[in-house]
Amino acid sequence: MDKDDPTRGADTHWSQVAQRHYEPNGNGELTTAIVYTIAEADGVSPSEVKSPPLYEVVDASAIEDAFFGPDVAGDSRQGVGTVEFRYNGSLVKVRSDGWIQVYEPTEADLS
Amino acid sequence: MAEESNTDEQATSDASASPEKQLPPPSILEIEPVYQALGHPRRRYLCYTLYEDTEWSLTDLATKIAAWENDIPDHAVTENQREEVYVSLYHAHVPKLVDEGVITFDEATERITAAEHAEQVLTALEGMGASLNSRQETHARGDMNEKEN
To answer: Are B47 and B121 within 8 A, CB to CB?
Structure first.
């Protein structure tokens, strides 16, 4: 559970290693877009990202509904936000503008 | 069964004390897995495949669903199309259907098998597919009907 503690490692420095833009009206699903971004960050093919299943980490369909859900009263919702979660030591951010970003911790500050 | 009915009697007497706190027994909430299972087009496709066979490898399943979605024969499915479906099944829809008791998934062999709630989900699909889903899932049902004939 420690790795999910948001207060852990206030000193941790994160650097972005991959990003991908999710197209809500495209063919793919948000789950797939997140896994593809993680795969790119890890330098593996998407089908090699296995453990844990994203389902066990975050409710991607809830994020999809919250940020990219259907129009309400003929217009899209205007909410702005970011959901962050950890996946195997990486930090994943899903932004309401569609950008998915994967960060990895950097070693102790070199400066 | 005998144990269950004892429990029911207890629940009934408790219910008279505080009726608003009693939930109906799980047996009459069995419709829930049906709604959960069928709430996404890919999960509906997956459930249709259970008509054809009650056991599938995840790769074969991904090929089949990619073929249906793109309206092409199985052999014309590209590696990218298969991988996209495979990833969404593995990371979202298969674990969801396992949670709902519709299938089981063996992580070592990557095979799915129909589970205890599969039958009621298939029964529901059979009933609503024709009127509600016909445009989207004609080809899936076509395969299903060929199988029956």
So the answer is: yes
Reported as a single tens digit per residue, the pLDDT across A39-58 is 999 999 999 999 999 999 99
Helical ranges in chain A per DSSP H? 30-42, 60-68
Q: How many domains does chain B have?
A: 1
- Looking up residue B113, the CATH number of its domain turns out to be 1.10.10
- Domain edges within chain A: 14-69+79-106
Write down the ipTM of this complex.
0.85
Cα gap B103→B118, rounded to integer Å? 7
Q: Which of B87, B97, B103 to mutate to test the interface with A (most CBs of A within 10 A)?
A: B87
Q: Is B23 helix (H, G, I), strand (E, B) or coil?
A: coil
Closest CA to A64 of A36, A25, A92: A25
| Of the partner residues A27, A45, A54, the one whose CB lies closest to the CB of residue B91 | A54
Nearest alpha-carbon partner for A46 in A59, A33, A56: A33
Where do the H-state alpha helices sit in B18-133? 31-37, 41-52, 58-70, 79-88, 94-99, 118-132
**What gap in Å lies between CA B87 and CA A53, rounded to an integer?**
9
Cα–Cα distances in Å, from A37 out to A28, B34, B102? Answer: 13, 32, 30
Q: Minimal Cα–Cα distance from A84 to chain B, Å?
A: 18
